[in-house]
């Protein structure tokens, strides 16, 4: 009987490692919280919210891209988790995403900007963690390097920096 229970526990543990991130509970941040996701979430980790510290964000699927932006000088390399990875980890579901900065500036974007484009929440610029002074801790970067057609006012106005909160609605 003990062998069967041990075998069952081993099988359940192995199966849980095969589950996609979206089916797992979200860990609790161990460091300073730099992002809070609210709204329609299936995987909150703190009073109905999903909170992330830097290591949690940087452990998610992400990208890196070298590009010019209207807000920086020259070609810089930005890297960080894909917005869709963050939303998936939080179990977010909805049609709109509202990003709010430290100074309360906010922009609303359709969920398709997260699901259909490789938008990233940049945590690093040229390999260094982004400080508040340098548009950090998080800067929504559209894939301007892969899709030059995104270099227009529509996407510029959605490119929030110094992000502290994301709200998922509808």
From TrEMBL:
<feature type="signal peptide">
    <location>
        <begin position="1"/>
        <end position="25"/>
    </location>
</feature>
<feature type="domain" description="Oxidoreductase molybdopterin-binding">
    <location>
        <begin position="70"/>
        <end position="143"/>
    </location>
</feature>
<protein>
    <submittedName>
        <fullName>Molybdopterin-dependent oxidoreductase</fullName>
    </submittedName>
</protein>
<keyword id="KW-0732">Signal</keyword>
<dbReference type="InterPro" id="IPR036374">
    <property type="entry name" value="OxRdtase_Mopterin-bd_sf"/>
</dbReference>
<dbReference type="Pfam" id="PF00174">
    <property type="entry name" value="Oxidored_molyb"/>
</dbReference>
<dbReference type="InterPro" id="IPR000572">
    <property type="entry name" value="OxRdtase_Mopterin-bd_dom"/>
</dbReference>
